[in-house]
Design goal:
Strand order of the largest sheet: 1-5-4-3-2-6-7
Order of helices and strands: EEEHEHEHEE
Mean pLDDT: 76
CATH class: Alpha Beta
Number of domains: 1
CATH architecture: 3-Layer(bba) Sandwich
Number of helices: 3
Radius of gyration: 14 Å
Length: about 140
Amino acid sequence: MFLKKERRSLELKGQIACLGNDAPKKVCARALVIKDWRKQGTKDAKELPVIIVSTTIPYELIQWWGKEKVSALITSTGGITAHGWKVAREVMDQNMASHLIGITAVSGAHRKIKTGDLLEIEVINGSEAIIRKIRGG
């Protein structure tokens, strides 16, 4: 379900780092901000979360995408040529995460978005994404 425009309180833009073949063009889900990959997981999430991190770590990406179900992964730093995203695309090519949207270079995402925030993510042109934080969500 997508909410009316006037309820949006924050809008961020980022680059698509990887986009699975089965990934939707729009996603509405709760955020899960990860500060330490080794201590946090998605097992407590009631729906497919949007994972927010400051940067990617290839080993953890492989572990998470193989086991956990997430709807999107957003990083604040890096770019589409960062090593973590190269590994992510390889994992997607093996069809382990064909449903996933990967977005990079979303400046300050891990500070501006909190765990539990309702987000609407829209893929534009296959190369950009808009992340909207829904007020009152």
